[in-house]
Amino acid sequence: MMNKRIYLDHGATTPIRSEVFEEMTPYLQGNFGNPSSIHSFGRDARKAVEDAREQVGQAIGAYSDEILFTSGGTEADNLAIQGVAEKLKDKGKHIITSQIEHHAVLDTCEAMEKKGYEVTYLPVDNNGLLDPNNLKEAIRKDTILITIMHANNEVGTIQPIAELAKIAKEHDIVFHSDAVQTVGSIPVNVDELAVDLLSLSAHKMYGPKGIGALYIRKGTKLDKIFHGGAQERKIRPGTENVAGIVGLGKAISLAVSELELKSKKITALRDRLIKELTSIEDTQLNGHPEKRLPGNVNVSFEYIEGESLLLNLDMKGIAASSGSACTSGSLDPSHVLMAMGLSHQTAHGSLRLTLGKDNTEEEIEYVLEAIPEVINRLREMSSLWKGKEANYS
Ligand SMILES: *Cc1c(COP(=O)(O)O)cnc(C)c1O
């Protein structure tokens, strides 16, 4: 009986680590005050929120008053894009992004198009990398916002954000980056990256779901997208998710303090997976070979249907994904793999394994036995594969 369960889907979400959980629980029980209240319950909650703001700021090299708490990465992306677009609409209505953004950015940009904005979706190369020259060429007089993700959630490719943001600055254009995949995983410093706005999310770094933050550089102006109370500098109304905020603060400071050590270990496991998986016949690596998230493995197996591969791996206790968790379930191939120029067939045979801090060498050992076995079995059943074999003989 299979009783092992191996989680290799940290790009989709991570568990709340115990140190974070312990930090949060008082704020779900005894310390339940509303941070806006004057009494001691309120003041305790306010202190917790402001301490966490300090932790988040410190983790990314920002001042604490540049951190605005949101309900997660998706809301942070929406607030950045809609907020800037609305604020600067008299200056221009052109936005630049990339074809491989997370749907939180892509769908928001598409919604802005319906509202009369124009959006340029920059292409990427075969490795998922943007060319800064393409950005330069796309800039117009009426460009008001550039939004490019730091690292891609599906293929792990890390973009040259500092270089791209510098181009934006030269043209006095606001630059936003969705850094949900990088904060806590690789060094992220808002000054080194030279971004004006940056999104992050707790549940991708061992914090709770439903809490994130938008970094807003001093002087960057944006309109609110929700209406209500005066919380979060009157930009993001609603009673604060105090326990979530405390969890985010703890998670991000732990992640950043352990980053170097963990990333070394995770990178070693990643490289072993990539090396051995790509040695399987008719298998390719998706994403950049070096400029890549420490925990991301994305490979395509020809003559394999990603969905059946996932189901078969799940039966062996291995949790992985094909494309991104948000898009699996639909039969459309991943927009990211399509933008990278993969054929439909190759995109459909993709497998994403995203490693976390607690994955072990033994687990990887097991996975490296299980995957070739499943691939062989599925290929044996595939008429395309048999046809290919026949052609060789
Ligand atoms: C997970 C993710 C998001 C969405 O964050 P939520 O907190 O789940 O809303 C946005 N962008 C990227 C790159 C992500 O990986």
From TrEMBL:
Pfam families: Aminotran_5 (PF00266). The active site is at C326 (cysteine persulfide intermediate). It catalyses: (sulfur carrier)-H + L-cysteine = (sulfur carrier)-SH + L-alanine. Its EC number is 2.8.1.7. The modification N6-(pyridoxal phosphate)lysine is found at K204. Pathway: Cofactor biosynthesis; iron-sulfur cluster biosynthesis. Keywords: 2Fe-2S, Cytoplasm, Iron, Iron-sulfur, Metal-binding, Pyridoxal phosphate, Transferase. Pyridoxal 5'-phosphate binds at G73, T74, N153, Q181, S201, A202, H203, T239. GO terms for molecular function: 2 iron, 2 sulfur cluster binding; cysteine desulfurase activity; metal ion binding; pyridoxal phosphate binding. GO terms for cellular component: L-cysteine desulfurase complex. Homodimer. Forms a heterotetramer with IscU, interacts with other sulfur acceptors. Belongs to the class-V pyridoxal-phosphate-dependent aminotransferase family. NifS/IscS subfamily. This is Cysteine desulfurase IscS. It comes from Natranaerobius trueperi.
